[in-house]
């Protein structure tokens, strides 16, 4: 079993010594950690806790499996989303999409206790990853936030934390259910895999306050009455509903407000293509490439290991099946966002949509591609 941070015990004054003379409570530490303002210091019951620096990798970085990290679900082993002895597996691990590393400075030892051959005695400085920071945020939320002032007070906090932990472990489980939030679901899929700490930070902030100022996200006032039972009926999780609802509500705010617990699919939930590309450009500071008039040869030319490829495709009138074939009745079609994950040797494309991976024949019925660097 992994180690759970237990409630602190007060120590005597001789034990609580730091160079600044300031000793923080565990609650203060977790609040600062969650806000991204923790720079290191003494914490009651924990001793000296190092500063953290988050390193974001690229598609050419090291494999995520290089980072052998275990994490105890703060809610107990019964619903524990991470096994102690397993490395964290993502769909694209084999493609080397993440740079996972931890370093220390000043004590001559690496984090696993081996001599690193550098430095002498002194305080450690830890370089952590987006994934490990995401886990710390979930732990702080689950263990040290009582939920009494939550914006979504009718949604179970413990379940919300477990869902978040499972989504950053396996982002492909994100769903849109019966909602028309496919554009927002694709954005969430990207965030959970490649920026898990920011995804978790946003989801927790929305749960607590109904806002996430860093991306200008806010929820519709009526959605604050949402419950676990409602999301269960419409086929998605509370995290899906709140995150996707906030993205749609904010991107389309000049047109309509959107309440995922009431508004379902339709014009209110529709996300315009330029809104999706601008989210990556403006909110995440990524340079995306938008392509029209897609051919099969162009699909084959894309490096799917280095790019997250969003396709706007045609669907049937019920939205139950994707139609990527040449022969279809255009009068019955709508538009749907999917992720193209690759090309099959025998022809066709592999895609992610509605929380699962599928295979369809490729076609010029793709309306647009939004290509995002991983």
Mean pLDDT value: 74
Number of helices: 9
- Report low-confidence residues grouped into runs of 5 or more: 1-19, 59-74, 76-124, 316-333
Evaluate the radius of gyration: 22 Å
Gap between N and C termini, in Å? 33 Å
Q: How many β-strand stretches? A: 13
User: Helix-strand pattern, N to C?
Assistant: EHEEEEHHHHEEHHHEHEEEEE
Structural class of the secondary elements?
alpha+beta
Topology record:
Elements: E1 23-24, H1 26-35, E2 41-43, E3 47-49, E4 52-54, E5 126-128, H2 130-144, H3 157-169, H4 182-194, H5 196-209, E6 211-212, E7 217-218, H6 228-234, H7 238-251, H8 273-283, E8 289-291, H9 296-301, E9 307-315, E10 334-343, E11 349-353, E12 356-360, E13 366-373
Parallel strand pairs: 1-2, 4-5
Antiparallel strand pairs: 2-3, 6-7, 8-13, 9-10, 9-13, 10-11, 11-12
Explain how this protein is built.
This protein is α+β, with helices and mostly antiparallel strands and 374 residues long. The chain has three domains: 23-142, no CATH class; 151-283, no CATH class; 289-373. 28% of the residues lie in helices and 16% in strands. The chain is built from nine helices and 13 strands. It has helices at residues 26-35, 130-144, 157-169, 182-194, 196-209, 228-234, 238-251, 273-283, 296-301, and strands at 23-24, 41-43, 47-49, 52-54, 126-128, 211-212, 217-218, 289-291, 307-315, 334-343, 349-353, 356-360, 366-373. The strands form four sheets. It has a six-stranded antiparallel β-sheet with strand order 8-13-9-10-11-12, with helices on one face. The protein has a three-stranded mixed β-sheet with strand order 1-2-3. Helix 2 runs antiparallel to helix 3 and helix 2 runs parallel beside helix 5 (196-209). It starts with 22 loop residues before the first strand and ends with a strand. Residues 1-19, 59-74, 76-124 and 316-333 have low confidence and may be disordered.
């Amino acid at each position: 079993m992994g180690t759970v941070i237990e409630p602190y015990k007060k120590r005597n004054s001789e034990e609580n010594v730091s160079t600044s003379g300031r000793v923080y409570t565990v609650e203060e530490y977790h609040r600062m950690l969650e806000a991204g303002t923790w720079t290191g210091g003494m914490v009651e019951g924990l001793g000296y806790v190092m500063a953290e620096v988050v390193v974001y990798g690229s598609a050419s970085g090291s494999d995520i499996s290089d980072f052998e990290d275990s994490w105890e679900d703060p809610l107990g082993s019964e619903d524990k989303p991470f096994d102690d002895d397993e490395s964290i597996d993502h769909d694209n691990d084999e493609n080397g999409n993440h740079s996972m590393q931890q370093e220390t400075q000043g004590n001559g030892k690496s984090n696993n206790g081996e001599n690193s051959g550098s430095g002498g005695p002194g305080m450690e400085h830890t370089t952590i990853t987006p994934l490990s920071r995401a886990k710390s945020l979930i732990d702080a939320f689950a263990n040290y936030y009582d939920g009494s002032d939550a914006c979504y007070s009718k949604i179970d906090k413990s379940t919300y934390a477990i869902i978040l932990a499972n989504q950053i472990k396996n982002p492909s489980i994100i769903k849109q259910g019966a909602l028309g939030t496919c554009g927002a679901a694709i954005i969430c899929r990207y965030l959970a895999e490649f920026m898990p700490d920011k995804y978790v930070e946003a989801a927790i902030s929305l749960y607590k306050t109904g806002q996430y100022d860093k991306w200008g996200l806010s929820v519709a006032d009526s959605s604050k009455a949402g419950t676990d039972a409602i999301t269960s009926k419409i086929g998605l999780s509370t995290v899906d509903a709140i995150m996707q609802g906030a993205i749609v509500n904010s991107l389309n705010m000049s047109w309509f407000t959107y309440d995922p617990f009431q508004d379902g699919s339709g014009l209110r939930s529709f996300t315009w293509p330029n809104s999706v590309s601008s989210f990556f450009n403006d909110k995440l500071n990524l340079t995306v490439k938008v392509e029209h008039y897609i051919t099969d040869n162009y699909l084959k030319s894309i490096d799917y290991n280095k790019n997250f490829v969003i396709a706007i495709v045609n669907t049937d009138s019920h939205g139950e099946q994707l139609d990527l074939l040449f022969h279809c009745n255009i009068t019955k079609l709508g538009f749907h966002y999917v992720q193209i994950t690759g090309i099959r040797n025998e022809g066709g494309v592999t895609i992610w949509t509605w929380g699962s991976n599928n295979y369809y024949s490729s076609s010029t019925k793709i309306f647009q591609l939004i290509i995002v660097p991983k």
